[in-house]
Amino acid sequence: MLSDLIVRSATPADVPTLFHLIKALAEYEKLSHAVVGNIESLESHLFGERPYVEAILAELSGETVGFALFFHNYSTFLTKPGIYLEDLFVLPEYRGRGIGKALLTHVAKLAVSRDCGRMEWSVLDWNEPAIAFYQRMGAAVLPDWRICRVTGDSLTNLAAKEASQLVSDS
Prior knowledge:
By secondary structure, the protein is of the alpha+beta class. It has helices at 15-28, 39-47, 99-113, 128-136, 152-160, 163-169, and strands spanning 5-9, 54-60, 63-75, 80-90, 118-121. Helix content is 37%, strand content 24%.
């Protein structure tokens, strides 16, 4: 069955399909309300003048059934680039067939070929199947780290602060 699997880089023509898969991921994670972006922005960020992200797609028998979206980050301790895997998703009806492994392995091969020092991602704490999958693939789930995030008005407010305000806020 997996002899029909193709993992390939996304092209501009794939953006609508990729956006559809992103919405399916959000639905699976019970976060559909958080999808406020659009196809045009996604296309610009993937293929515009300054690409911010990359994506690969998994196709099984000609049907797109999964994706991985990632970008480079940097490790100051390793003084090497890394890859941050923003999303890895396989449609639920196609899970358990090795498609997620193929996507994760493809990104890992890119990281090695680009001399990256690490590859990392986040996983929701309730998603036990994903946690178990990642651990089987060799990932360590770091218990001592927490994600910090600033978005929306909080990001705008932080960006507007002057240095003197930052000292008085601490």
